[in-house]
Amino acid sequence: MLVIRRRASESVWIGEDVEVEVLSIEGGQVKLGIRAPGTVLILRQEVRELREINQLSAQQALSPALGALAARFRR
Q: What is the maximum span of the chain, computed from C-alpha positions, in angstroms?
């Protein structure tokens, strides 16, 4: 992990086209602004974790259904 100190209104670049700017620092919270192309997916950690859980749940729910469907065609 790269650790960089920045003050409010300072920014860092990720690659050629993603800029992360510190907008404000209040107490224990930091407000970030992210400029990136529309093709770059930006998610909060908790949203990403929920998406992964939902995808795994969908795959697990689908597996028995696919197995039953495949069994119908094996007859």
A: 68
